[in-house]
Amino acid sequence: MKNIGDKINDLLGLDADGNEIRLSNYPGKKIALYFYPKDNTPGCTAQACDLRDNYKALLDAGYQVIGVSIDSAASHKKFIEKHSLPFPLITDPDHKMVEEWGVWDKKKLAGREYMGTLRTTFIISPEATIERIIPPKQIKTKIHASLILKP
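Above: the chain sequence. Below: its structure as tokens.
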């Protein structure tokens, strides 16, 4: 997993429309880069909608929200449209980004083990270094924005 203090490359990935998402697109902003398992599932929808509902407060506090999942661009487009999400979602169908950031790991559900994305948020400083990590066990999907805003 990436660690606090790690320097982050400018290019993060591609959004649902194939546009490059770069840190330099958001000068002076802290980036709340959140990794989530799957579009349109209950927990991921609650998380995205909480971030949407608190987006102005996040922007006012100097944050730009960017989501990442392994879903396709088409899935992201539907998710964004259905829930009126005002922030970009990076598509990572080849798992390159989730593996590079260390959030692709074994998960368990109903006694079954499988590989999946660990719900994790990285706060990236305007100087492109990781300044804080909100790990999976600390994330509460329905109040995620307040966790980002909490110092």
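Residues 11-149 form a domain with the Glutaredoxin fold (CATH 3.40.30.10).
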